[in-house]
Design brief:
The chain is of the alpha+beta class and about 90 residues long. Helices cover about 35% and strands about 15% of the residues.
Length: about 90
Amino acid sequence: MKFRFGAAALAFSPCCAAWADAPAPPPDTCRLTTTERFIGAKAIRQVRSAVQQIARPNPVRWITPGQPITLDFSARRLNVILDESGHIAAMRCG
């Protein structure tokens, strides 16, 4: 019985060691933490205005399905990704 417990403890130790060495989350450079509460909301004028106000002075890019976008990276820019029905599906810095 002791052997099984010891093997289980050894099996979990690499996992825990890797978790301890995990990098810190990136800084909130585009005010993502304060705007992500709008995920799932319909991107109507009032919602768009609220997101713009909260993200200010950072730029906001609204991305619709199939819309071509540039691949440049701007850590301050908030990307708001909309789904086919016009709801906010995701947000990310970049």
